[in-house]
Amino acid sequence: MRTLLYGLLSVVASGADAQTIVTSVADGAWNSAATWDCGCVPAADNTVVVGHAVTLTQNASLTVGLLVVQADGSLTSVGNTGLTHAGEFFNYGLIDLYDLLLAPNIITPDAANFGTLTVAHRFVQSREDFVNTGTILVTDTLSSGAGWTNAPTGMVTAAVMDGVGPFHNQGLLSGDGHFRVPFVNDSAMVRSGMFTVMGYSISHGAIDHTGTFTVTGSFQMPDSASLQVQGMLAVLLGASFSTAANVEVNGDLQLAGVMVLLSDTLLVTLNGDLLVDGILSGAGVLCVTDSTVNHGLITGAIDLCDITRTALDPPFLDLNDGLVDTTVTFCNNPYCMVDGIPDMGAHRSPVVYPVPTDGFCLIAPLPVNGRLELQVTDMLGRAIPVDRVRRGDAVEVDLRGAPNGPLCIRWSVGPARGIVRTIVSHTGSK
User: Fold this and answer.
1) Strand extents, DSSP E, 32-164
2) 3-state helix, strand, coil in the chain (%, to 5)
3) Sign of dihedral through CA atoms 19, 25, 30, 31?
4) What are the pLDDT digits (tens) for 289-326?
5) What is the pLDDT of residue 196?
6) Which of 181, 178, 170 lies closest to 408 in space, CA to CA?
7) Distances (CA, A) of 231 to 195, 211, 252, 254
8) SS3 sequence of 23-43
9) Is domain 351-424 given the CATH code 2.60.40.10 in the classification?
10) What does the alpha-carbon distance between residue 70 and residue 79 come to, in Å, rounded to a whole number?
């Protein structure tokens, strides 16, 4: 996209009906003629090139013109001013606005952020195929009105994030408000607040959420993924959640829809109550710390274990007025056993922290006994040499020499093995 951009201005200028190109010549206000080489204020259909510190002292609008903020340029709001833009959009420098609307434009849809984009109030992203390879920080609301991508080097932080999307995350997404956008996650999503899975969404990477995690549409996780919820997991009536990956919930699971466990090797650890009003099916191990209540259907080859059960007879649930298939087993695994029986305890999936990191990271908890093997690769599968030090049930990995972007870390200790992901962001690097 950078190569396209370098030739873009000359193509525009050479056209018979070329748009007027307005370039900044000094620091100053957008609405000051002295800021621009034309000695005028940019019109709505101009192509605008910002290479200085330009301020918006009042709202501005570009309907079809190209906007380029160069690496040494900035566009900054004064007060509650904002920009509405429907032309091509390329930011290599700093944009810091109160409001930003990237309106849809089917004629010139190209839009990309390579630098730093900060929005204090509301960023409405309605441009199909918008790409972020830099940093986006939205203090209030990021509204996704069209499909867009956070690239492997991209970092997006937003409080509330809503819209029809879909949002494709290949880098790092974080934030502390309500997330409610259909998504594809190939890397890492670390959020707190409320998380609502809408429409059709799929995660191939890691999701770490603090708060209520609610599935209202169709959510899938293959075996390369992981989900950790510090709060309640709810699958609502009419919704479905299919997983071949481990799930850890430090709270209750309320199942009114359908939940399918797709692998006999996966483990769902539930440090709270299980309430089934819908359908629980498939295979794998479901380990429950607190109460188990079934008003619905539990079927398949699931191994269901209530480690604090009060029932003395199958299906060993605290309350069951639903249906439990005869194929379901109870505590027939080494990871989750009833209190008072020797066991290995509830399994906790290893996680990597901090995310992102600019140097060292820890992976824990790992099995203490056994030879540790570690392989670090980038998103293209290229091996990255690293140093590591065992620290009890953790391993410290030195990523100071790793490139910026997402990394995949494969670990094994004896027969146990797994995958974690992190993002490297060296301080001062884009």
Assistant:
1) 47-50, 53-56, 60-62, 67-69, 74-77, 82-85, 89-91, 94-102, 111-113, 116-125, 130-132, 135-144, 148-150, 155-163
2) 5, 50, 45
3) negative
4) 999 999 999 999 999 999 998 888 889 999 999 999 99
5) 98
6) 170
7) 11, 5, 7, 11
8) EECCCEECCCHHHECCCCCCC
9) yes
10) 23
Name the one residue in this structure whose structure tokens are 């429409």.
Answer: 199
Residue whose C-alpha is closest to residue 198's, from 257, 239, 149, 254: 239
pLDDT at residue 8 greater than cutoff 60: no
pLDDT tens for 100-134 read 999 987 666 689 999 999 999 999 999 999 999 99
Q: Pick left, alpha or beta for residue 345 (phi over 0 → left; psi -120 to 50 → alpha; otherwise beta).
A: left
Residue 206: is it exposed, middle or buried by C-beta count within 10 angstroms (0-12/13-18/19+)?
buried
The helix/strand/coil state of 9 is helix
HEC profile of 168-211: EECCEEEECCCEECCEEECCEEEEEEEEEECCEEEECCEEEEEE
Q: Which helix (H) or strand (E) holds 218?
A: strand 218-221
Whether the Cβ atoms of residue 251 and residue 272 lie closer than 8 Å to each other: yes
Yes or no: say if 236 and 255 are a contact pair by the CB < 8 Å rule. Answer: no
Task: Give the C-alpha separation, 171 to 153, whole Å.
Answer: 6
Give the Cα separation of 7 and 34 in Å (integer).
Answer: 27
Structure tokens at 40: 């005028």
Residue ranges covered by each domain of the chain:
351-424
CA atoms within 13 A on the CB side of 316: 18
Hey, what are 356's tokens? 């992102």
Six token digits for residue 91? 């930011």
Written as one string, the DSSP assignment of 358-375 is: SSEEEEE---SSS-EEEE
